[in-house]
Structure formats: structure tokens, C-alpha cells
Amino acid sequence: MFRNQYDTDVTTWSPQGRLFQVEYAMEAVKQGSACVGLRSRTHAVLAAANKPASELSSYQRKVFRVAEHAGVALAGLTADGRVLSRFLRNECINHYFVYEAPLPVSRLALRLADKAQVCTQRSWKRPYGVGLLVAGLDESGAHLYYNCPSGNYFEYQAFAIGSRSQAAKTFLERRFEGYNDYTPEQLIKDALSAIKETLQGEKLTSSNCTVAIVGRKDDGTLEPFEMIDAKRIQEIIDSMEAVEEAPAEPSSMQEEERGSDAAPMDI
Amino acid sequence: MAWQQAMGSHAAGGSQAPPAAGGGETQRTQYPYVTGTSVIALKYKDGVIMACDTGASYGSTLRYKSVERIKAVGKHSLIGASGEFSDFQEILRYLDELTLSDHMWDDGNSLGPKEIHSYLTRVMYNRRNKFDPLWNSLVLGGVKKGPKGDEKYLGMVNMIGTHFEENHVATGFGNHLAIPILRAEWREDMTFEEAVKLVEKCLLVLLYRDRSSINKFQIAKITTEGSTIYPPYSLKTYWGFSHFENPAQGAVGSW
Asked: Locations of Low complexity compositional bias (chain B) (predicted)?
């Protein structure tokens, strides 16, 4: 009758040492449409695939500005994500009020993780069903963190979450080593390419994706977290498609890849 | 005077009933007791220099002769205080707690002088809004690496939460006697030696004119290398000026 004896509340261990409710919450992240994040030394970019819940509805926002210097992209239960992004906004604004300085991104991610952790240790609570990519800028440069419902968090150069994110991850894994020196424009292009991988054939347009960027300008000042407007995204997508459709004349960059350590399969 | 009433009521019991403990009535700080006098500070080429004497007065009695009124806060800041000495000690406890918990995050981030100054501003203004002020003028100086290289910082906050940043600051009597000198002689690119000379000139004027100052001074500096608080020393004085000989002569008044 019972499929699983050990999953009726979050705090009950299975004999194998697992917490099923927490694992189920982690699964919820995979149900939401995909989000990707990537960063250079100075800039971080977040992108999300926008999926309407039904033919007749609009899509739910998945990228939120948290403060001037940080923002999040989320996959999973968007409602939980909104609660958490409000929490993050609060933390940032309180820190700014007291110290007149932005909250470092690592501490922002840590506070979020601590909040998520509490939900895995209280029998009357449920874990948040949402994964968040936290991107931001602080004194030590641009950062990207992934926070999951289990209360774990990791720092990444590039990462993807949500449904069919594996395709995006594979794409990012092939290219992440160069990201530190990427220009903002290059980061946006790779973010869009990664999102495109998750669409599986569906056409990528400015209306089914959101891209946001935060970073430090050349003069050392903050380039605040901002959604990139649809017109510019469409221009970038068009330029990317133009390159793809151009005759397969090997560019110098591809030549270089072939010359070095790329496996024959990759070409 | 209200000042004497507050002091005297402890001994005499007074005709007024003392505030009932836990009866919803509380006594706020209405007067400072042990106070330190002026602090002066200025930016120079490599950082910030801060100076004050080491005296603390009980009312108008020069009661304590070697108290440190300049302290290091974290790795990047110096704080100097004039006003109620016990309130300063309380503030140091707050700052210890703050820098310790900041250190315990262990993530490489640390509070700079700007953040500490802002924090203190919040504390001071909050307390004055409770009508229970911390009776101090605080000077905050420091150097911290920013996105545009090393950034010097010097600011002040007083007991009612008024705060500002400046290239040179002075509290108390110093605000009247040292600031005109600093305005005339301060330069952005002063060497440490020049800065010390200027600071000593201000301290000497204060020593002559401010009755609560004493001839035992401490100078401190903060640069990218960290903070140094030098041991106390005295300045050479000359009391033979004709105006010092008979100060009452020609003065209008009964004394």
C-alpha cells in the first residue's frame, strides 16, 4: 500500500540515509523551465526560457532584480521563488541601510541557503521547491551561485537549472574555461545559445527568453543589474543566426580549437 | 543647576522619589560624567593621521591622565572619540562584536571605514531618537582597497547622529581652534612628517586654550599597511607670552 514509508515528512531519515522530501523538492527544480547563468571576471549574466503555463496565458517572470548589484533567476515553483527573492531584497536593503554598502554576493547566497536549510530540519515545514541562480557583483568581482532546496549552495563559472538543462550544461561545459575573459556581449551570446539548447528545436526569439546582466564597467563603477530589452536580444539572436547560416568557412577560432585538444567527435 | 541636582540626588536621596526599577520609568543619560576632549584627524599622502590627548575629565576635574581615546577597528579603520568615556567603551564593545562576526563569516570580505562609519551613524542616531544618546563625537578614519585603488576615508559622527566626510576633522574645542589652522595649511599630498607637524601645531593651540586638555598626546596613523598607534608623548610648551602673564588684565568682567 505504501510506496515509501519514509517520505511523509522532511525530517524522517530513510535507512539508506536519505531525506525523501528534500529529494522531491530537488525534483521540483527540474520541472520548471530552464535558467542559465554565467560570468566573467567582471560581469555576470542570467538568462531564462519563458514558458507560458497554457496556450492562452502569459509566462511567469523568472528573473528578478534583487538590488543594484545582484539578481536571481529561478526554476521550479515560481511562487516560492518570489518569496525568496523578496527575502533577498530585504536582506540587501537592510544591509545597505546600515552600512551604506552592498551586501557581498557570497553572504547573500549564504543567507538564502541558511533559510532553505531550516526547512529541511523542521517537521512542520516544507522545503522551498525552487532553485535559484544568484548573480551579482561585489568587491571581489562577479559571482554566480546556485542555491537549491536542500540548503546546499555552490559557486559556479557557468550553470544551468530547470527542465532540459542538461543540454545547456553540456554546452557550457565545453566552453566555460574561456569565460573569465569574455566581454559582456560574448556572455550574452553564450547565455542565449545555452538557452536555445534547452528549447529542443523550438525557435529562440526575444519573446521566449529573458536575459539580465550585472557587472563592473571599465571605469570601476557598477553597471546595475538590468534586464536586457527585447529589441537588443532579438538583434543579438539575429546576428547569431546569421553566423550559423553563413557558409561553413572555418574561422580562425575554430581552426585553433581543431588544432589543440578538441576531440574529433566535437567537430 | 540641573547638573548638580543630577549629581547630588544619589547622596541626598532628595525630595524627588528615585525612578522605580521596572516600573516603566527609566533614567536616560542626561549629562556626561567622565569626558575626553578634542580629537583631530586629517588625510595625508598615504592614509589618515589621528591625534588627541590622553586625559579624561570628571566634570571639570582633570581626573584621568592616561586613557587611550584612539583605537583600531578591524583591519582598515581607526576610531577616535571625545565625550563620555564609558559610552566610548560601550561603542568599542559594539564594534568588537561587529568586526568579530564579520571576521567569522570567513569569506574574505571585511568592513571598511565607510561601512563602520555608516554603522556608527545608525547607532548614534537610533540612540538619540530614544532620548538616550551615546554622549560622544566620533572620528572615523581608514584606508581600504576599492575598485579604483586605495581609498582614504575620514568622517565624523556626533551624539545626535549628524555625520559627514571631510579631508580634515576635529571634535569639540578642536572644531573651533584647530579647523581654521587645518583649513589654511592642509594639503592632499602631505607626507607623514608634515602631517605630524601640522597635527602638533593644532594640539599645542588646544593645549594652551582648552582647559580640559593635558600635555600628553597620542598620534595614530592608518595606511594600506595597517594601523599604528604611537605611545604617548609631550610637547614643548612656552608660557612666557605676555598674554599668559596676567590673563585677567584688560578683561571685561568681575573676575
From this structure: 8-20
What does pTM read for this prediction?
A: 0.86
What pLDDT digit, counting tens, does each position of B147-158 carry? 788 999 999 999
Q: How confident is the model at residue B22 (pLDDT cuts 50, 70, 90)?
A: low
Judge whether B29 counts as a catalytic residue.
yes
Asked whether residue B98 is domain-assigned, the answer is yes
- Number of domains comprising chain B: 1
Q: For position B57, which CATH number holds?
A: 3.60.20.10
- Is B20 inside a domain boundary? no
The predicted-structure confidence for A105-147, as pLDDT tens digits, reads as follows: 999 999 999 999 999 999 999 999 999 999 999 999 999 999 9
Considering the candidates B26, B29, B99, B237, report the single residue annotated as catalytic: B29
Residues within 8 A of A (CB atoms), B 112-171 only: 112, 114-115, 118-119, 122, 145-148
| pLDDT grade for B15, boundaries at 50, 70 and 90 | very low
Contacts for B211-216 with beta carbons within 8 Å, 24 or more apart?
A: B211/B60, B212/B35, B212/B37, B212/B55, B212/B57, B212/B60, B212/B62, B212/B173, B213/B37, B213/B38, B213/B53, B213/B55, B213/B173, B214/B53, B214/B54, B214/B55, B214/B62, B214/B65, B215/B53, B216/B53, B216/B54, B216/B55, B216/B65, B216/B66
Q: Is residue B250 part of a domain?
A: no
